[in-house]
């Protein structure tokens, strides 16, 4: 951030009065520009014991497999964000269930939330950010080609929990 | 948003190529300025069956009672944010437990997360954003003077759940 988005003057990086951390501040109009973590929402879509994964068409981790997920937008709920991302990346309409994993990743200022989801019919296709979308049984999961640690964590937990038939919400903090 | 925070030129509100919603875009340097929901993190601090509430010194809802909570900052986990806000508003050091309520509030672009917390000692005081901090038994809760619906929801659920001794994570969507 170099300029004030409100008035266009250069900003300074300094601690505002009464605050205790540096913010981008405009000494011309007085605006303080807070920056906060962003939410990634997605699903773990299941059809007849199989999991829907997407092969990424874009960076980061292009070519690797992921669960459908992406940045939550203004004006939606976390569940709506998870369903929208599943549609955009896998052209799949899911029934979003319970929150399954919530992962804080402080070094990249993200909180990722993955929901369990039912894929009522095996209908899906690659959206613009995927090159390939397919169902995997547990034995077929491409563990060495998963895009992110949050994805492999969620899948490992899911297969463990499936043996017990209970899927509690898992709270994970990923530190560097 | 009127100006590009990267190069200082005026921004336009338009749909970027390949996108499907309006963003603030700079036609000079090409920057796209995404805006996303923010996370509010806080705690429901308990000491010997009593709940710690803060009377708000600031708008919105000045003078009303709330659980300690505030905007999650970059570089922290949701639990760290909840503990820090509890310190800042109630000068109380808590042991943060399980996620209790997660509430999407799409019309104000927020996701609020409240954690169950143990107050090991009855030590607390008003921080700069509170005029008063005190412990309330269930019978003493000032239901008509609570600041936000998310707070009254969490407290109602808590007292119900306490009768059963189980505190599952509650997922709430607040629509206008």
From TrEMBL, chains A, B:
**Which Gene3D superfamilies has this protein been placed in?**
2.20.70.10, Nucleoside Triphosphate Pyrophosphohydrolase (3.90.79.10)
Q: Which domain of life is it from?
A: Bacteria
**InterPro entries xref list:** NUDIX_hydrolase-like_dom_sf (IPR015797), NUDIX_hydrolase_dom (IPR000086), Nudix_N (IPR029401)
PROSITE patterns from the UniProt entry: NUDIX
Q: Which UniProt keywords apply?
A: Hydrolase
Q: Which organism is it from?
A: Proteobacteria bacterium 228
Transport among keywords: no
Every Nudix hydrolase domain range: 36-159
One GO MF term attached to the UniProt entry: hydrolase activity
Matches recorded under PANTHER family: NUDIX HYDROLASE 23, NUDIX HYDROLASE 23, CHLOROPLASTIC
Q: What name does UniProt use for this protein?
A: NUDIX hydrolase
Lineage, broadest ranks? Bacteria, Pseudomonadati, Pseudomonadota
Give any Pfam family that matches: Zn_ribbon_Nudix
